[in-house]
Design goal:
This protein has five helices and five strands. The chain has about 150 residues and is of the alpha/beta class. It has one domain: Rossmann fold (3-Layer(aba) Sandwich). The protein binds 1,3,4-trihydroxy-5-OXO-cyclohexanecarboxylic acid.
Length: about 150
């Protein structure tokens, strides 16, 4: 059985590699995309990978998952901490959500400690660098296979 998993990324993640490398490391978004596809191939998941700096575009992509996608892995970046609209989109499509952050947001600024997504997620993975994407995809497949 091949599962379809959407891996969506929010604002400024296109700058990974050059953006505050002391915080986010030197891996680029292209490296993350490759990791996600390799992970999907190894565990039986087709990956749809997408990044945007435009909130409405992300909401459109989430709405577009309804009926054709089995789970969503989402690094919503700053919108994690600000967007009720994103949360509503996620709950509207009724798909299992896996929240991912490269950094441990709980060790950072207080405003990053709150997430509008965590309580509507299956789980949250943060602080393990880009490996968090792999962990989320693998766990999504494990849960879908149950
Ligand atoms: C992030 C953490 C967010 O607080 C921040 O706004 C980001 C990236 C992460 O992956 O660690 O842009 O989601």
């Amino acid at each position: 059985m091949t599962y379809k998993i959407a891996v969506f990324n929010g604002p400024n993640l296109n700058l990974l590699g050059t953006r505050e490398p002391e915080t986010y490391g030197y891996d680029t978004l292209a490296t993350i995309e490759k990791l996600c596809h390799q992970t999907g191939e190894s565990c039986g998941a087709e990956i749809e990978f997408f990044q945007t700096n435009h909130e409405g575009d992300l909401i459109d992509r989430i709405q577009g998952c309804r009926g054709n996608t089995d789970a969503i892995v989402l690094n919503a970046a700053a919108w994690t901490h600000t967007s009720v609209a994103l949360r509503d989109a996620v709950t509207a499509v009724s798909l299992p959500l896996y929240e991912v952050h490269i950094t441990n947001v709980h060790k950072r600024d207080a405003f990053r400690h709150h997430s509008f997504l965590s309580d509507v997620s299956v789980g949250v993975i943060c602080g393990f660098g880009i490996q968090g994407y792999e962990y989320a995809i693998r766990q999504a497949v494990v849960n879908l296979s149950k």
